[in-house]
């Protein structure tokens, strides 16, 4: 993998050179990990004219999967306790190396931190790197996709085991904690994001925080979870009916959301505009009169963060490339009644390669548990 990280840094260095910067300071943790292989707490990465340096406030913990493993091709500098901010130390190092222009991630730096960089090296011109690293991260290599595939397998296992247990009478909070424990039991570094479990009138609500409501007969139960495996994060969302055969309105709503989700998945073709994927799913729900209950987007990219570019939203600009992992997650929530969310993680593939690769494979049949 050392060669992979070196190639990634080389691409970014070429981009910086084209804009007149001889060095770049990477401070956003996910971007540090993407370029360096590991991102110990507080670490920054300096891409310098002579070598690349990972500056850490303390010695990285050996073998900690949560932070990754720094690339052996980097020079590792552990700062003394009195050194303070690693980003400021990196700017000073760039100055002593004769760098005149340093590209920084202005969208990540606080105003205070930006001023500190300028004060330690007043003659160093700070240029905005923008979202260059985030844009580079959109298309994944096969090693990254392999990590996402394992994360999805772990997530499917955890959800499948929960569905085999007795659910009636248990609280949303208890079920969410159990799911997160099962993720770790099956090999996850942890949950990819806070697990959402929603029952009855809470079901189908995006980002619902589990509470003390107990599962009851006849409820819709919607679950959204994901595993973090070696830094890569996936997402799955499913909706079930508890205890009895679903009511007519539940069947109708579920089939509608399922049709929208299927349309969104089928639109995942290289070259398709992001907003066209959103439209494919949204149009079905709009046409059924659910405009007011819809989320602002149909899906998003996943990787080292659970919410990355691209955004599959009505006003999103850009087109899909192959090897881009995304979620497709339409839903409808009816206030006071509940609702349905169906969410999968997929990888965009060429039609000659079989079309979109579905990573999360738990059944989407409306099960009565």
From TrEMBL:
Superkingdom to which the source organism belongs: Bacteria
Domain Peptidase M24: 147-349
Every Creatinase N-terminal domain range: 8-139
Positions of the UniProt region annotated as Disordered: 190-213
Swiss-Prot/TrEMBL keywords: Aminopeptidase, Hydrolase, Protease
UniProt key word Hydrolase: yes
Keyword Hydrolase: yes
A GO MF label: aminopeptidase activity
Name used for this protein in its record: Aminopeptidase P family protein
Organism: Streptomyces xantholiticus
